[in-house]
Amino acid sequence: DAGVTQSPTHLIKTRGQQVTLRCSPKSGHDTVSWYQQALGQGPQFIFQYYEEEERQRGNFPDRFSGHQFPNYSSELNVNALLLGDSALYLCASVSLAGGTEETQYFGPGTRLLVL
Amino acid sequence: RKEVEQDPGPFNVPEGATVAFNCTYSNSASQSFFWYRQDCRKEPKLLMSVYSSGNEDGRFTAQLNRASQYISLLIRDSKLSDSATYLCVVNTHGSSNTGKLIFGQGTTLQVKP
Question: Which of A2, B1, B22, B81 has the fewest CB atoms within 10 Å of its CB?
């Protein structure tokens, strides 16, 4: 039973560029959340996708956008990268459509470095 | 003021020690509470949920005081493998772990032989 997977594992970009990060949820999960974790800090909620729509959003600028596909996988896009966007980007999945599991499981994350 | 506040530590303790972590949250409407564990350069993993009645899982005990908006985690008989960062987590929009989770900064524990 595959857990949450994310790609790529590491990424280096320069200021002003755009980046796309990918997440596949745990088998049986239909909801994906994205978090940003800066060094030495706890993860911060970016947004959550369910039924291919943004369900909740945290305090992040519009440069951060996302998408969920019919197979429940998700992408996080960040435009006009800033140095401060350097962080570990975590994806978490859960099932909202029923089932017995109500715990978010996190993927291993994508480490983004912006130079 | 941060929504969830923790002492970042580090806490350096010998094997076998008892260690307690504290956390406060600012939103009185918060509905569900958790402790997550995060190993170095790894993803956070749910350690345990926290209930008003208190709950215990082996060497770990979690307590919630809604009146004081205070959450605690007690680890007894510390093991080397307990070395990690412990994250206090709050959900203000539901009674489960399914929605937006608000994390504290994390408290680092280092257990030494």
Answer: B1
Helices (H) and strands (E) in chain B, counts: 0, 11
pLDDT of B20 higher than 60: yes
Q: C-alpha angle with apex A84: A92 to A115, nearest 5 degrees? A: 110
pLDDT digits (tens, 9 = 90+) for A75-109: 999 999 999 999 999 999 988 776 555 688 999 99
Task: Determine whether the interchain pair A108/B96 forms a contact, defined as Cβ–Cβ distance below 8 Å.
Answer: no
What's the CA gap between A24 and B44, in Å, rounded?
17
Which residues of chain B make contact with A41, given a CB cutoff of 8 A?
105-106
Q: Which two tokens stand for residue A1?
A: 């039973």
Residues of B near A (CB-CB distance < 8 A)? 4, 8, 42-46, 87, 93, 96-106
Contacts of B46 in chain A (CB under 8 A): 103-104
